Amino acid sequence: MVPCVLYGGDEQIHFATEAKNFKKILFTPETFIINVTIDGKSYNTILQDVQYHPVTDQVLHADFLLVKEDKPVTVTLPLAIEGSAPGVLRGGKLKQAIRKIKVCGLAKDIPEVITINISNLNILDSIKVRDLNIESITFVTPGYQVIVEVRAARGAAATEEEAAE
C-alpha cells in the first residue's frame, strides 16, 4: 500500500492505495484527471507529486491535488510536434529542447497535449514558449525557453535570402 495525500480542499485527506494503481498514470506522458474514491466520496484529482525509493524505484508516497471547476490548477503537459520544417529538408538538424511544458488554468480549459507546428522553421529558427498562444491558460514555464529549433549542420543549404546576402 502506498500512502497518499489529497490536498486543495478545506483540509488534507490522507489515504492509501495499492502500488499497482499507479502503473497506468505514471508511465505515460499524458496528464490525467483521476477520480479518487475515499470513504464512499468521489474526488476529481490530478497527480501532483510522486516520491520513489532511491534503489528500487517503487512508489513511496503520492500527492494528489483536488480539481475544482472554479479554481485554476498548475499541470505539466506533453508537447507534440507536427509538420515538416523546411530547414530540416535543407540539411538542418531539428532539436527539441523540452518535451513537457508547465501551464496554469481551469481544468476545463487545459488541453491534453500542446501541439506545435514546425512547418515554418528554416535553418536557425526556433519556437519559444512566448511564441505559443493558447487562450484561457498561462504558461508557467519561462517565455525565453526554447521548445524546438532547427540548427545549422555541415553542408546545410542556405535559404534564398541568406544566399542573396
What does this structure look like?
The mean pLDDT is 84. Strand 1 (2-7) and strand 2 form a beta hairpin. The strands form 3 sheets. The protein has a 5-stranded mixed beta sheet, with no helix packed on it. It has a 4-stranded mixed beta sheet with strand order 9-6-8-11, with no helix packed on it. A 3-stranded antiparallel beta sheet has the order 7-12-10, with no helix packed on it. It is elongated, with a radius of gyration of 21 Å. The chain is built from 3 helices and 12 strands, in the order ββαββββαββββββα. With 165 residues, it is mainly beta.
In short:
With 165 residues, this protein is mainly beta.
List the helices and strands and how they pair.
Elements: E1 2-7, E2 13-17, H1 23-26, E3 34-38, E4 41-52, E5 59-66, E6 73-82, H2 86-89, E7 93-96, E8 100-105, E9 114-117, E10 126-128, E11 137-139, E12 146-151, H3 160-164
Rg from Cα = 21 Å
Identify low-pLDDT runs.
none
Strand proportion, as a percent range, falls in 35-45%
Task: Kindly state the number of beta strands.
Answer: 12
What distance lies between the first and last C-alpha atoms, to the nearest angstrom? 66 Å
How do the strands of the widest beta sheet line up side by side?
2-1-5-4-3
Q: Output the helix-strand order.
A: EEHEEEEHEEEEEEH
User: How many helices?
Assistant: 3
